[in-house]
From TrEMBL:
InterPro entries: ATPase_NBD, Carb_kinase_FGGY, FGGY_C, FGGY_Carb_Kinase, FGGY_N. This is Xylulokinase. SUPFAM superfamilies: Actin-like ATPase domain. One of its GO terms (biological process) is carbohydrate metabolic process. It comes from Muricomes intestini. Residues 3-241 form the Carbohydrate kinase FGGY N-terminal domain. CDD domains: ASKHA_NBD_FGGY_FK (cd07773). Keywords: Kinase, Transferase.
Length: 500
């Protein structure tokens, strides 16, 4: 039998079907566009469902083995409101949507930052759902006709099965979920005038929702009785898909943004975590919590440089049939640590000083600067920034033996060796390029393989493909440059000097 993971993201969805060894049997994906301007970022839930059905139909139709169980990994924070007829009432606000900034002060009048962190595991921020709930309540009529509120994981699960269940890991992205009682916090939801009955029942990842509805199964070409299990937040699923089950392992997901995560020794909520913007997030494994740090401009920054600064090289690579990033990586790998410094906060900045109105900095340019030096500066700047964030985790007794890199960055040997040299920690790549769908598929497998521990399923389905070990001589060189990077960061900062 086979197991499938669906990954619902900000810019696309995909479904991948795996066998019991973690080998890909079939895969299908679609991309879609967000909408909005003037600080609004929205996603059409009807469009997402339509594309999700397409990838299910295509992947299941091409699989040599029937799918026994499916789980969904999805983006966090964004909600879907349905009326009594299951009609979508509004587009979903995405994480970077500016609505909710002022509403954080409404929350803080009733709950201190320490109370919010203690209940939800989250530093108070507009990126989460609760401030956006309050905005919707005060600025729209959406909730007047709302009968159900979903996140994308339980929305897809509901449309497939008719059952309303959401994983702890995704419910926790709302900033209205009590991570200690594992229930919705009515005290927090009252700030937005909402009742917790509007939300799906919180359950452990891997809990079976039920079989796919017969008419939906027929439409999508799924075997009768195909089961759906609770998945989780995409970052948690990617962590599981990387094989992260112990304190000794970390996961680094490099995509549009970059999120690095580690298992905490215990459920932790402290003023230090609030100051540094570090959440205590429920994992997709029982009673385990994660510390997460983020670089908000990762793949999106690389693409900006490719299209705006290196357009001539991009076009040359395109006409020559060469992959742009592979070409530039090969040139950069031959060089020693660069002399140009780049702060990668082009529009926003993640840990350790979270700012959603940041600016980047390039320092050290001359009329002799070559494009490859600037490319190298981007890669090194992102690595230095993540290392600066990583250093804040030492207070939480996080000291992994290895970090597994997933997402687009895992395809770059140069990036992996650079990170190993700077962090002085081995960086590993796993057998699947889709850690999110693999993690969801592992949860699906655990839902039906009741005689196996999920850690044993992980061992069967996740294999390390390659390891990049730190080089001591390069680590010393990079640490000298890192001292200069920190000085630039502290002297210049990331906030705007002038109004745009």
């Amino acid at each position: 039998m086979a197991y499938a993971g669906i990954d619902i993201g900000t810019s696309g969805c995909k479904m991948t079907i795996y066998n019991r060894k973690g080998e890909i049997l079939s895969s299908s994906g679609r991309t879609y566009q967000e909408t909005g301007d003037d600080g609004y970022r929205e996603l059409d839930a009807n469009m997402v469902w339509a594309y999700t059905k397409e990838v299910i139909r295509e992947a299941s139709g091409n699989s040599p083995e029937p799918v026994q169980c499916i789980a969904v990994a999805s983006l966090g924070e964004s909600i879907i409101c349905l009326d009594e007829n299951n009609t979508v009432l509004a587009n979903s606000m995405l994480t970077g949507d500016k609505r909710g900034i002022d509403e954080c002060s409404i929350i803080e009048k009733k709950f201190s930052k320490e109370e919010v962190m203690d209940i939800t595991g989250l530093p108070l921020s507009e990126m989460y759902a609760l401030p956006k709930f309050i905005w919707l309540q005060n600025n729209s009529a959406v909730f007047k006709n709302t009968r159900h509120i979903f996140f994308y994981e339980d929305y897809i699960g509901y449309l497939l099965t008719g059952k309303r269940m959401v994983s702890f890991s995704l419910a926790a992205r709302s900033m209205a979920f009590d991570i200690r009682t594992k229930q919705w916090s009515q005290r927090l939801l009252t700030l937005a005038g909402l009742d917790r009955a509007l939300f799906s029942a919180p359950v452990l990842s891997g809990t079976i929702l039920g079989p796919v509805l017969p008419d939906i199964a027929e439409e999508l070409g799924l075997p009768p009785g195909t089961l759906i299990a609770a998945g989780g937040h995409d970052q948690g699923c990617a962590g599981l898909g990387s094989g992260m089950t112990t304190f000794a392992e970390g996961e680094d997901g490099q995509g549009t943004c970059e999120v690095m995560q580690f298992i905490l020794p215990k459920l932790t909520s402290s003023p230090y975590m609030i100051e540094k913007g570090i959440p205590c997030a429920p994992y997709v494994l029982p009673d385990i919590f994660l510390a997460q740090i983020e670089l908000t401009t990762c793949g999106i920054l690389m693409n900006w440089f490719k299209d705006n600064i290196f357009a001539n090289i991009r076009d040359f690579c395109g006409t020559s049939g060469i992959d742009f990033f592979s070409y530039m990586d090969t040139l950069a790998a031959e060089r020693h640590p660069g002399s140009i410094m780049l702060l990668p906060s082009f529009g926003s900045c993640g840990n350790p000083d979270i700012c959603y109105d940041a600016v980047g900095t390039i320092c050290g340019l001359t009329i002799h600067t070559q494009p490859i030096e600037l490319y190298q500066a981007v890669k090194e700047g992102m690595a230095y920034q993540m290392f600066m964030a990583y250093e804040t985790l030492s207070e939480l007794n996080i000291n992994p033996d290895v970090i597994r890199v997933t997402g687009g960055g895992a395809a770059s040997d140069y990036t992996l060796q650079l990170r190993a040299d700077i962090f002085n920690i081995p960086m590993e790549v796993i057998n699947s390029t889709q850690a999110g769908t693999l993690g969801a598929a592992i949860l699906a497998a655990s839902a039906v393989q009741l005689n196996m521990k999920i850690t044993d399923i992980v061992k069967d389905m996740v294999q390390v493909k390659k390891c990049f070990k730190p080089r001591s001589q390069y680590h010393r060189l990079y640490m000298e440059r890192y001292d200069s990077y920190k000085q630039l960061y502290n002297d210049v900062g990331v906030k705007r000097y002038f109004a745009p």
